[in-house]
């Protein structure tokens, strides 16, 4: 069919208008992309997004945040830091990051005492914090510290073979103490035999499975601290009876024996004395927490009598567990006729009660009105030790307990994220299907498509 010149002109005009509309649409989309952004994080633990706690904090900070990274010209390290800060800039546009090579400013480097690893200075409202390690948890907690400008002190009892917050032995809590310090929680130690008073600036007293009995006077000082509303973290071990008097004053009782759990074999742990927790009750400490935590050599606890505290069973063992009162060696079985108890067993309690605020409590509380006293008792003193703190969610659980106990609830939901989705585990069947698809199916489809197109063209 012959097309007239007039028809040609109409077709050209129509095509021109369609092209113009498409160009205008593309231009509009390009302009909108510079004004607005839409993102979706599909990683398994949202490792490329900020937690809700960090987003809420950034929305509450009205002034500019300045970060200065004194880092050597290492493209990989600088890129990692820039990627983390970019997540913050999505929620706070007036957050600035500057990189400075320490070698280019030696005087400033000496003034700030910057070592070879470098340092990051966070500045807000005329105050500054120094970070030797940066992740979402440490940066957000530094911003919270700058916004509040309040010091938080935690007191660890010593003098009876307790685990030291600055110790390097396997059973000590040195790594946990460093993590607290990174989050601006200051740890101090006290021996009540030499200094019979708990410091007034302390927001929390921590007692970690003493190896020898406490003196009668020391126990009375701690009981008075509890009566006056002091916050307390009590860690004990199976067979350790040195804290029985304190537990009884809280209305708790430690059961004889060690919790054993045969279900731990499902996670590749052959030692039945390791207790794994993955199901947590509703509580501010465990809110949004879904990571497995590991507790080696754990004692069961139970409510023994009437208590003034509201109690929540914070951690429980599995249904297949029980309290083994005999040696944990060889084949062990549950003895229903003895003192052993069948699981699930509670091995951590969170206790609270409302009291009048008193300036002499030593609990770091203000005067006037009422406040909530908080206590956590755990039947395992090892889960935060240097040997086990790196296991899955142990560090996060410990930090959550501390933040709740010192009434820093806003810090609880800031996770120390680990990259759970950087490795891909495939079954042999999955590998075979993928290999067959790439090596056979896709080449055959391409060959078949090519043959079909060739046949169609040849038939014209």
From TrEMBL:
InterPro entries: ABC_transp_unknown, Class_I_gatase-like, DUF7088
DUF7088 domain boundaries: 48-131
Domain of life: Bacteria
Signal peptide: none
One Pfam family linked to the record: ABC_transp_aux
Residue ranges that the Swiss-Prot or TrEMBL entry lists as coiled coil: none
Keyword Membrane appears in the UniProt entry: yes
Domain ABC-type uncharacterised transport system stretches: 154-388
Protein name: ABC-type uncharacterized transport system
Native source organism of the sequence: Methylobacter tundripaludum (strain ATCC BAA-1195 / DSM 17260 / SV96)
């Amino acid at each position: 069919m012959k097309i007239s010149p007039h028809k040609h002109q109409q077709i050209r005009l129509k095509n021109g208008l369609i092209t113009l509309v498409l160009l205008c649409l593309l231009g509009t989309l390009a302009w909108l992309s510079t004004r607005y952004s839409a993102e979706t994080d599909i990683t398994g633990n949202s490792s490329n997004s900020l937690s809700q706690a960090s987003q809420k904090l950034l929305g509450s900070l009205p002034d500019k945040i300045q970060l200065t990274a004194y880092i050597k010209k290492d493209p990989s390290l600088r890129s990692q830091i820039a990627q983390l800060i970019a997540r913050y800039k999505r929620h706070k546009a007036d957050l600035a990051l500057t990189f400075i090579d320490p070698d280019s400013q030696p005087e400033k480097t000496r003034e700030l005492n910057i070592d070879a690893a470098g340092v990051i200075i966070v500045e807000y409202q005329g105050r500054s914090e120094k970070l030797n390690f940066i992740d979402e948890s440490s940066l957000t907690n530094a911003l919270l510290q700058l916004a509040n400008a309040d010091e938080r002190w935690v007191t660890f009892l010593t003098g009876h073979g307790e685990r030291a917050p600055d110790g390097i032995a396997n059973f000590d809590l040195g790594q946990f103490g460093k993590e607290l310090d990174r989050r601006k929680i200051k740890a101090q130690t006290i021996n009540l035999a030499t200094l019979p008073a708990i410091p007034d600036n302390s927001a929390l007293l921590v007692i970690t499975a003493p190896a020898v009995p406490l003196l009668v006077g020391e126990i009375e000082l701690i009981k008075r601290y509890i009566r006056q509303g002091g916050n307390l973290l009590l860690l004990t071990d199976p067979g350790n009876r040195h804290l029985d008097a304190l537990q009884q004053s809280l209305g708790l009782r430690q059961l004889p024996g060690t919790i054993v759990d045969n279900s731990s074999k499902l996670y590749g742990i052959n030692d039945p004395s390791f207790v794994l927790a993955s199901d947590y009750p509703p509580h501010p400490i465990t809110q949004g927490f879904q990571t497995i935590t590991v507790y080696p050599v754990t004692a069961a606890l139970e409510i023994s009598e009437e208590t003034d505290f509201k109690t929540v069973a914070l951690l429980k063992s599995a249904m297949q567990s029980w309290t083994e009162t005999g040696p944990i060696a060889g084949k062990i079985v549950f003895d229903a006729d003895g003192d052993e108890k069948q699981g699930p067993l509670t091995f951590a309690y969170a206790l609270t009660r409302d009291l009048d605020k008193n300036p002499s409590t030593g609990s770091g509380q203000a005067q006037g009105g009422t406040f909530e006293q908080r206590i956590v008792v755990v039947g395992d003193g090892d889960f935060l030790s240097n040997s086990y703190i790196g296991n899955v969610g142990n560090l996060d659980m410990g930090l959550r307990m501390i933040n709740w106990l010192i009434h820093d609830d806003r810090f609880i939901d800031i996770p120390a994220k680990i990259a759970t989705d950087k490795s891909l585990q495939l079954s042999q069947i999955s590998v075979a299907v993928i290999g067959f698809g790439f090596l056979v199916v896709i080449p055959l489809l391409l060959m078949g498509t090519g043959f079909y197109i060739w046949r169609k063209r040849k038939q014209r």
